[in-house]
Every structure is written in C-alpha cells, then in structure tokens.
Amino acid sequence: MAKYHLMVVLATVTAAVVECGATLASAHDEHGTHAISAGPAEIRDAWSPPSPPGIGTRAVYFTLVNTACAPLKVIGAESLDFAQVSIHESSTRNGIAMMTPATQLTLTAGETVSFAPGGLHLMLMGASRNFHEGEHFRIRLIFDDQDSLVFEATVGGAAAGGNHDHHRQHKDGHPDHPLAETGGS
Asked: Which of 73, 131, 145, 152 is 20–30 Å from 109 (CA)?
C-alpha cells in the first residue's frame, strides 16, 4: 500500500513539474508575436523607441509573463550597453506626469504584466553608444532567486521586431557572459 501511495505522489509531482516546469524556447505565435521563455518567465516583443543622436537614455517596453505556479519577483535589470537599468512606472496625478522607480515587481502565478508607454517600463541610462533603428541590445532581468533571463530589445516601434536571443542563467551554472554579444541584428 505504501508503495502505491509513493507512486501516486511521484506521478503527481511529475505532472506538476511538466505543467509548471522550466522551459527554454523562442517562437512566434499565430499573431506573429515573438516570445522567449525560460524557466518561470516569458518575454514578448521587447522594443525601444528610437531616440535622437546623443541621447543616452531610453525606455524599453515588452510583455512579461510568469509561467510558473508560484509568484515571480523581479528585483532588477542590467545591460552591458548602459550604465544603469531600472524599473519605472509612469503615471499622472492631478494632471502632472510623474515617473517613479520601482525596486521590485512581483507577478502572481500565471500573471501577465505589460511594460508599455505611459505605464511600467525599463529605464536605461548612460548608453555606451548610439543605437539606430533595427539594432538590438541585451538586457538581463534579475529574479529574487538569483536566476535571470537575458533578452534582446529592438530599437524602433513595436512592429520593428522582438527578441532574437535569450539565455537563462541559473544559480549553479552561468554562461560565459550572455550580455557581451550586443549590437546590430
């Protein structure tokens, strides 16, 4: 009887791991939306508006999906192409536009959050160079469990493209440096 219960428990755990397990994929859905996923997170259509030459600050927009069965906490971001990356939220209070930094962002299991103009976005400051329409740069989202997800943002409108590369870093093993390969397409 105990052996039967152990088999039921193992089957249940296996099903949960398959349902909520770590995946690593890059694909386009039926609408042409480009998405990358790794472990507990999926990022769709990362882009950054073009900016005039000499402006070292830019915003990045995308959709973040928690594909895990548990909360996902984003505690920061970084990029080798920018001196500083932070999560910001734009809002309007009493007719005055404001931008407030956020130290972390928690997504419940299965939750989708849009980083979009007029709301949440990544603010990148201190660009190492000018980026032109169609070029890409890499960003790493850092989670509270020390895992991270590296994705590319395309300079241009939301239709200019999406993510073209991804790496998931785990506590126990890191690629050489997935942020090092940046630049053009």
From this structure: 152
